[in-house]
Amino acid sequence: MRVPWLSIHNAESADTLAVCFPPAGADGSAFAGWREALPEGTALAVVTPPGRGSRADERPVTDMAKYADAVAAALRAVAARRRLVLIGVGLGALSAYETCRRLLDAGVPVARLCAVAGRAPGEFHGGAGAAPADGAGVPTAAPGATDPEPPAGPGRADAPLSPLLADLRLIGGYDGRRAPALAVGLRAVWATCDTRVPRAAVRAWTDWSTGDRAVLGVEGGHDVHRACPAAVISACLDDRGADGSGLVGSRAPRPSRRAVLGAGATVAVGTVLSTGAGAAAAPRAGAASASSDSFDGDPTDPVALAVAMIRQNTANPGDGAVTLPYASMLQGVFEAAGVPTEMVPTPKEDNVHFFARVPGSGPAQKKPLLFLGHSDVVPAIGDAWTVEPFAGHIEDGKLYGRGALDMKGVNAAFAAALLRHVREGARFDREIVFWSDCDEEQGPHGVRWFLSEHPDKVDPGVVLTEGGWLLNQRDGTTPMIASLTCNDRRFMGLRLEATSYATHTSKPFAGQAVIRLGKALERLGAWRAHIRPNALSRQYFAELAQATTDPVFASAVRRMLDARTERERDRAGDDVIRLSRTPELHNAMLRTTAAFTATSAGYYISIVPGTATADFRVAFHPGGGDDPGRVVAELRTLLGEGATLRVVGNPGETEQQTLDRARYYLSIPDSTTDTDVFRAWEEAVRESHPGVRASACQFEAVTSAVPFRERGIPVYGIYPFAANRDMLKRMHGTDEHIGVAALRQGTETIYQLLARLRVRS
Fold first, then answer.
1. How confident is the model at residue 256, as a pLDDT?
2. 698 - beta bridge partners?
3. Do 188 and 115 touch, CB atoms closer than 8 A?
4. In sequence order, which ranges of 513-654 are alpha helices (DSSP H)?
5. Where in 231-368 does DSSP place strands (E)?
6. Is 425 left (phi over 0), alpha (psi -120 to 50) or beta?
7. Residue 329, preceding bond cis, omega within 30 degrees?
8. How far apart are CA 210 and CA 228, in angstroms?
9. What sections of 337-487 are H helices per DSSP?
10. Residue pLDDT, tens place only, 604-639
11. For the chain, percent of residues with pLDDT exceeding 70
């Protein structure tokens, strides 16, 4: 069906019309793949301006008012009894806004306005113009505009520039500073990896609506509307919002024509932020979730605190999280107990570090004990949860939620134990500092940035952060061994690339890049490094052999520790891993490992791609583990034809510089165990978990400890609650959880540790 300015598909029985406005320079191909991903009963209407696509021989429109008037007139002709949802991508968001404004003025209802990866009207001041910027003829966008997007598909480099220039002139003449807020529901959708339009710019759209507003994140880059249309459609059309209930209206989401919203598409509507203080709702439709900047429970109850922390959505998409509401809640908790607090902002909006300080009363030479816990969590997107990840749901004795394990449960234990002492009127022999840092998971403004920018704010004697585990016997319920980690592993990024040649899909061939990538991945996935326990791991496994009640397991551990040859050690070590109740954990403590995280190939439906890539991370042990350069060289010997492997370092680094930096980090010594805090922890374990052995240990992951260890400050890591294999596997995964009873008992360990630092009356 065609009307002036619109190409409408599947409109016959549809009660909803999704009207899509293309980005700068694009035509209807910008929405290729959308038709099949739309929910039942929804028709697709693509705005088709003159000067491109089927209207390439017409003169382009370069005036926003004329553009919006024409689209509004076309929609009035087809809008009868249909629910209108206007969806604009990039520049198209402005066109959608101006069209919506005209429809509302004419009395035509609009159900929702959606801005995808586009900047808000107020960023455009008019009079900018546009002109070619370089010899390639690619025009420069007007101030505040995103880069123009040429039409997709074969021959895009040869696309005429007139649509691009027309759209840039459209932007250049547009002044949105005095544009009104519209009485319409609004969805502002940002792409989590978009370097052109950050979340803060997308969030500004909430000022241009007086209706229900929500800011949602979709996993992908600036072209996410092409790469994952199903996820963008879900963000725009599903009835989820940020009112605390997880719902905007009464309409339930309808099933797509495809299973899981499109074959191969990743649904990543993972962050739903309110327009107020950052309250968060669920990525899963229909699940209730509430978030508040205040806490009205018992602050010495670690379970209540952990639930409140989880309900603060501090998901970090890669450039830093929104932690201000979380920090505000903590501020209220500590200040209600009379503990001074401080929030230190970072350059990223609403991303802050939080401090609470309990003054010391002991000798001045004792430096502070720092409880270091990160505020941010990894996103809960891409994989389906069975519970709402930001609801703090408790079921069958388990507390579920993103960050329950890593590491809001630990933060809750730290805070509840400390506040219990404060309630009792305790005085400590040193200052106790609670620091909830930001950007631990990803982002530029974490601990290292803070210590560089604010060197005088933190000078601890000992740091206690996330790390060692409390494991049970084979019965799954009896605590066996508690560990306090004294060093972390180090990670290095690698990228595998397979190449061939691109061609039409009608003529596939045996050496396709994707096939070569798969074969190379299979070889790399089968690679196993040698068993190389360092000094910390040897100490831990020696204690484990004493702690376990499983004689076969204990025998394998002793054989591994006593092995005289590499072959004997590998065989015994593999037996240890096979017999362990937590094999993935113990494998990571004994050898270098490789974890595959992402693959990429293909860019157009009828092209066999000539390049396919896979990213993975290799984790090394400090203190006698494998050399990074030798591992890279060994992995390269496993590659087949047309495959290469490169080291992924910091921008501007050579491979040698990246390898040398990794070797430097691996050379940082273990934290000494000769401190009163380590001894206090050993005594606390005996008090809270009688009969359990306590040991120093090597952590299998990485924390924010490195900047402190570089300065010779001891850093210890602890997850004080009992963990099993299922719980460990769900760290950074789906249905992340911890045990409620274990959290309470683990908090008792922290309480007992602090009790040994009290000043005796």
1. 33
2. 487
3. yes
4. 513-525, 535-547, 551-562, 566-579, 583-590, 628-636
5. 271-273, 280-281, 341-345, 352-358
6. left
7. no
8. 29
9. 409-423, 447-453
10. 999 999 999 999 999 999 998 999 999 999 999 999
11. 87
